[in-house]
Amino acid sequence: MRCALSLVGAMVVALELGCLGDRGPEGSPGDAGPPGSGGDGGAFCLQPPGLSAAVAVSNPANGSFFVAGERPVVTITFTDSCGQTVPTSSLGSVDDVFVVGPRSPLQTVTAYDLMGLTPGLFRAQGLKPLEDGGVPNPNMTFQPDGTVVYTLNPITNEAPGTYTASVWAKGRDELNQMFVLQDFQLGTAAVEPYVSGSPDDSTCTRCHENQAPGGKTYLMHIIPGSVPGSTLGDWALDSLPVGSCKACHNNAGYSPNTILRKVHAAHRGEHQLAPGAAHPEYGYGIDPTLRLFTNVGFPSMPTGGTPGVALPASVAMEKDCTSCHLDDVWMTRPSRAACGTCHDNVFFAALLPDGGVDPNVTAAVIDPPTVLGFPSGTNGCTDAASCSSFSTLATCNTTTKNCELTTHALQTDDAQCGTCHGPTTGLSPIAGRHTISPWNAPISLEGFTFKNVAVTGGSGAGGSFQVGDALTLKFQLFDNQATPAPVADLVTNGAWAGTFLVAGPTSNPQRVYGAGSGGLNMKSAGQGALTYDAASQTYTYVPAATWPASSIPPVNNPGAGTQTNPAGNYTVWFYWAKTTSGVRDAVDAQVAVAFGVSQPAAGRQVVTQTGCGSCHGMTESGFPHLALHGGQRKNGETCSTCHTQNAFDRVVGSTGVSCSTNSDCAGFLGGWEACSGSVCTVTVDPTPGVVVDYQQLVHNIHFARLREGFAERNNLGLPPSIPPKTLNYLGFNNSLIDLQEILAPVDVRACTNCHRSTNASCSDTAPCGYGQSCQSSKCVNTAWQNPTARACVTCHDSAQAASHAEQNTFIPPSGPTVESCAVCHGPGATLSVAAAHNITSPFVPPYPREKE
């Protein structure tokens, strides 16, 4: 909207709310001169300062693609928030234009010839006039209104495909950044897609995009100082992955390191074996920056292993290529560069100083060797023959007893890659080698579906449950065939195992039905009765016990006692897991029921499946796939049924692997495990006081690398791989799991990345789940705005923060604990969570990736 103001008023608005750009001296009132030359005569727009860019490419003669001899014309226009064109002389410290293509990763280069630039200088083309007023490139002209017209050189021998003209620019304010892409075709009308999808909605954003309003994409350049002179970070470079990335990171670009290498190596992370080593056999020099990512764990589930120690090839989660690739080129187009950037220890040829192949080297070296692990069912290999199940090329390291790969056939080009590494054929098929085993691949239950799930037996008003009621669960299970068939053998088939849990209330769950450290065994006669009615294709499960008056003690912490079950909503959760040839998968369902009160029941949705699955993986049918606890627990909304308040990880007396001497126990050197009765037994709790309470566990893990570790100050560790006083948990078979280097790939201060709104329709009769509030008939996540010491001292974990929380907590002689957190940090308070965690308006630069 434009409005007429007096000259004095116009000057005030220009200073306070005016449009960005060099306006020049004011013209007379009513004399609207061109921007930058005489003002607009007192007519101003009441809009905040801003700057945007537009890039357009002329139409080819045939209407589809440019051919040899044609000269594409790139038009670049900068506009302020009032809609006025801004000359490039008014821009800030960055004003670069790039032209790159084609899109195929091994072919993408900066089109220096088209741009009229000298090849090999690896620089972008600036857009500002020279100091003497001249143009920075003879192919470029500045129009009277400030528009830049860049006529590319005639097309000659450029490879056909999709090319991109892009502009990276900043306004006078470092907060005003932009990156704009515009595609065009050379030599072919066939558009080449990005493997990660459209830059506006690429797979990269699943993990790296801040979900808060005004959120940004968090890759390396958003960190201040990652580009020299960037005091606030250059997030515009990261804003449209991988399109914006390839403007610099291509095979002849502003950066000497390609996007292919950067992405593969960074996501290989802790499992890089030769990070940044030169690979002249396919044209890559040394890249020391890749060593910065050796503490990165790929989040596709399941995860495991120790940072800095290579996982066996069978369990490295970054093999889940479909997390990033939307097409199948990762299977169908193998190359030394594509494969070698993950398998960075494979040197496909030895080159002489002149670039020729060394004739004295008859086999390519794998250095360090790729560790395949022990042969299945053994305590280690004895010779190469015992490693044949891994590969015919595998050898036995008789010292470590691991099977290893130490050599690879010489490859001086990519022509033969597909011979041995076809999608499903050859000596080592890619699809097979990229199966994540033994837990979750192939995903045998993908597409299996529970139907007509019902929980009955409540004798209270509205069908609510009361103490002493007998709970009955009914359900059907159908397979994933084109015409789904009922699964009728859960009762009789030993490959199937069912688990049943009930926990609540949803505001702070404790287990009501369960056993040991988990749930009831649905096939155990002592814990309940499971039957199947073939006529109705329906299973019926009735737990042996009726609804109890009190909860079950938290996992591994009987001293915490029980609580009288309060009235409210409770979650009934059950899952069935099937194990086939060492592969396990599960399918689950949850039902909300009311206990002690007549009300519409809704589950717990403090976090949502979508929030967890965006980073940790999605199944082919679009369902989140966490695959924790051996591939059985896959529902992020139900973890709190076991991971309740005051639940511990393993404690003194927990048993692990079999042993004959103390030295057989991994924790013996750490002083917390010993061989007792032929089994390794915890003698001293290595993680004293560490809880596996869901909200604390998740917060701890996602900010682990930058926490101060007050709660872990007494942890003992596992020499030499896991140092003491770090974030670790004692898990299955007394394995000490080190999570110290984990750091979420977005800014953890943006709570809504995990605490997402379901946006489900809601009303008085259709309430939102706990953690969501009904706003304008949609469910919005508000749980993250309610401060508690239990949650906040996980990220804010210094001794001072712990003391602050304790001083503001009152434990009365009887009744629940009282916290005063909400006085200062509750919704609407001066230091509310929403205000303290607001990093988008105004923008707050992110913290460094590493501790300083």
Characterise the protein shown here.
The protein has 852 residues and is α+β, with helices and mostly antiparallel strands. Helices cover 11% and strands 21% of the residues. The strands form ten sheets. Strands 5, 6, 7, 10 and 11 form a five-stranded antiparallel beta sheet that branches. Strands 18, 19, 20, 23 and 24 form a five-stranded antiparallel beta sheet that branches. It has a four-stranded antiparallel beta sheet with strand order 3-4-9-8, with no helix packed on it. Strand 32 and strand 33 form a beta hairpin. Helix 11 packs parallel to helix 12. The two termini are 48 Å apart.
Query: Helical amount among residues, as a percent range?
Result: 10-25%
Q: What is the straight-line distance between the termini?
A: 48 Å
Radius of gyration from CA coordinates? 31 Å
**Beta-strand percent range:** 15-25%
Helix-strand makeup class: alpha+beta
Shape, principal axes of CA atoms: globular
Mean pLDDT level: 89
**Annotation field: number of helices:** 15
Number of separate domains: 5
Quantity of strands, as a count: 33
Low-confidence stretches: 1-43, 303-311, 438-442
Main sheet characteristics: 5 strands, antiparallel
Could you name the key traits of this structure?
852 residues, alpha+beta, Immunoglobulin-like, 15 helices
Write the layout of secondary structure elements.
Elements: E1 2-4, H1 7-16, E2 43-45, E3 51-57, E4 73-80, E5 95-101, E6 109-110, H2 112-115, E7 125-126, E8 140-142, E9 148-151, E10 161-170, E11 177-186, H3 204-208, H4 243-246, H5 259-268, H6 329-332, H7 336-340, E12 346-347, E13 364-373, E14 395-396, E15 403-408, H8 417-420, H9 430-433, E16 449-456, E17 472-478, E18 496-504, E19 510-513, E20 520-521, E21 528-533, E22 538-543, E23 568-580, E24 583-595, H10 609-616, E25 655-658, E26 673-676, E27 679-682, H11 694-702, E28 728-730, E29 736-738, E30 772-775, E31 778-781, H12 789-795, H13 799-807, E32 809-810, E33 818-819, H14 821-825, H15 833-836
Antiparallel strand pairs: 1-2, 3-4, 4-9, 5-6, 5-7, 5-10, 8-9, 10-11, 12-13, 13-15, 14-15, 16-17, 17-22, 18-19, 18-20, 18-23, 21-22, 23-24, 25-27, 26-27, 28-29, 30-31, 32-33
Helix pairs in contact: 11-12
